[in-house]
Amino acid sequence: MQVEKFRYDNRIPKLFLIATIFWGAVGMLAGLLIAFQLAFPALNFDLPFTTFGRVRPVHTNAVIFAFVGNGIFTAVYYSLPRLLKTPMWSNTLSKIHFWGWQLIIAVGAATLLLGYTTAKEYAELEWPLDIAITVIWVVFGINMFGTIFTRRERHLYVAIWFYIASWVTVAMLHIVNSFELPVSLLKSYSWYAGVQDALVQWWYGHNAVAFFLTTPYLGLMYYFLPKAAERPIYSYRLSIVHFWSLIFIYIWAGPHHLLYTALPEWAQSLGTAFSVMLLLPSWGGMLNGLFTLRGAWDKVREDPVLKFFVVAVTCYGMSTFEGPMLSLKNVNAISHYSDWTVAHVHIGALGWNGFLTFGMAYWLVPRLFSTNLYSKKMAAQHFWLGTLGIVLYAIPMYWAAFRSYFMMSAFTPEGQLQYQFIDVVQSMIPFYILRAIGGSIYLLGVLLMVYNLVKTAKQGSFLKFEEAEAPRLEKAYKPQPGTFWHAVIERRPTLLLVLSLIVVGLGGIFELIPTFLVKSNVPTIASVKPYTPLELQGRDIYIREGCYNCHSQMIRPFRYEVTRYGEYSKAGEFVYDHPFQWGSKRTGPDLARIGGKYPDSWHFNHMLDPESMAPGSVMPKYPWLFENKLDISTTNSKIHAMRKLGVPYPIGYEKEANEELKKQATDITNNLAKDKIKISSDKEIIALIAYLQRLGKDIKGEEKESLASK
């Protein structure tokens, strides 16, 4: 048998690893800033680029797509060639992938800080960047599959199954969720509206966690944990069950993010059922990882790499136990819109993704630089700092969640709400401070790691290429008698790709299509009308400033919510909302029925100085809204785009839209003048007031008509 010589190229894994650590520190620093902003609102600095609403999506995108994303690519570009005994298919595509991804991250962060956002969680980047992501993802896929098809190892190891399923599923999720109609170079409207947009978003959002933060990192676990432990994976058959059941069940679970909302009940129940089932395959993967270390616990005590891996896999088990529990309606009633969800997400992000990445970095850098780790003691210190940081981060958030729930739902003996929303906000501040301290300790550990790895690299010499050899793969292949049935799939990457796509596609087909085609899922309400041109402009300002990060527009059918906010929300209210604005966290009160509750002057003063209207508020100030002139040159294109999306604006309405806009703006400035507030009618604050005063009024109007008819 002819043996061929080749070499592994370590330059691309090195670049991705550097990017992983750099963007990780940047993303965590942004997270630390917004954590402190919730306790000390002065840290918003009264600037448009530093407010919580704009920095928060920078934090989430940096941690998910920059830190974890580059971590995924580090693992793939290092492990894939070694598992397949071949170099990466194209060095040119590898470089395009690396620099293209970093450019997307940098431009994405800049545009988010400038206020260009789609307002869809974990998918905030605007349409040109969505296209760029698609292109770079295809480049990555071509390079990955080119490597697989030119391999010298017939068997595809379990890590590669997870890489393949992750690639195809992320592509599907990104394309479906990113359907949007461009209005300008950096502005678009979601193709979907209201309930349908919410379902698509959380079908994407939940599975972005599943197939970007979880499944590729399971591939990372299946490669690096056995390597570090110098032991084979515990169970091959368990890995098969883990893989297929996980990718099939995960894709159905998205609706559990929308329990008690206006989403059809059947979709909520379906999401809950599959979420509970998800516990079994998730824990199968966790146990497969932990059992791999059986008999190696003495090594775990001595090796900081394995310590990081053990806690990472344990945090994966904790998160994947908690997730199904949070999908139960009685638990979700407490957790949703609260800091419980924040704690849950960060157990996964800091523990599972963070610690697994740190373990990989500590294992990989000495090998890339042909040396030993500079300081095992320093790595152990990082481990304990990180662990302490996670504990100090999570426990206050759990405590805050239960405290806020009991305060929000408390009634006096006379049947009145016992606490105002601002009372709840003030009671959260000590927990937010503790959370920020925990994040600071965690980040300190990361900085210690950076120093340790830099010193490790400096004492060694970078190994650009590693020489290797392996026999050529024979094209003619017939499975031997008695071969396990799954080997047929493992040896056929195209079959594995197609089967993975079918398995993950089923959930989307059976959840999304009925919601779009069956009209009874979204019953219309006659009193709900399209936004006026000024309200539409105001809504876009609301989105630009990231108000959706702290406020929801979805009142659930609970006594305390209806008493506090007004009539619970119905599906037909949101048919003209592109995108939907239901929110996922309430740092401020729900705004679904805010329209008409306060005079225009209240909103004016509240945006100028929140504490003047709500003493103790942690909301930022927005002084630029009183200085910026409203850009009405975009009104026509926005009305035209909305009509294309099905909003029933009359044909030719664009010609008179700005005149109507000016008239409504003048009415608002006249109302403000009655309260001795003088301001020009062409300022952005006027449009925002118009939007806020519209919220919920259509439903209130319907209620009045119903009472009058009786």
Brief characterization of the structure:
Helix content is 64%, strand content 3%. It has helices at 11-39, 52-84, 91-113, 127-149, 158-177, 194-211, 215-229, 236-250, 265-277, 279-291, 297-302, 304-326, 329-335, 339-368, 376-408, 421-459, 486-490, 493-517, 533-544, 559-565, 600-608, 610-613, 635-644, 654-674, 684-694, 697-709; strands at residues 3-9, 180-184, 187-190, 465-471.
Helices and strands in order:
Elements: E1 3-9, H1 11-39, H2 52-84, H3 91-113, H4 127-149, H5 158-177, E2 180-184, E3 187-190, H6 194-211, H7 215-229, H8 236-250, H9 265-277, H10 279-291, H11 297-302, H12 304-326, H13 329-335, H14 339-368, H15 376-408, H16 421-459, E4 465-471, H17 486-490, H18 493-517, H19 533-544, H20 559-565, H21 600-608, H22 610-613, H23 635-644, H24 654-674, H25 684-694, H26 697-709
Antiparallel strand pairs: 1-4, 2-3
Helix pairs in contact: 1-2, 1-3, 1-16, 2-3, 2-7, 2-14, 3-4, 4-5, 5-6, 5-7, 5-8, 5-18, 6-18, 7-12, 7-14, 8-10, 8-18, 10-12, 12-14, 12-15, 14-15, 14-16, 15-16, 19-25, 21-25, 23-24, 24-25
Please name the defining characteristics of this protein.
disordered C terminus, globular, two-stranded antiparallel ribbon, 710 residues, two-stranded antiparallel sheet, 64% helix, single chain, mainly alpha, 4 strands
What do the pLDDT scores average to?
95
Strand content: under 5%
What is the global morphology? globular
- Proportion in helices: 55-70%
Strand order of the largest sheet: 1-4
Largest sheet: 2 strands, antiparallel
List the uncertain runs.
705-710
Structural class: mainly alpha
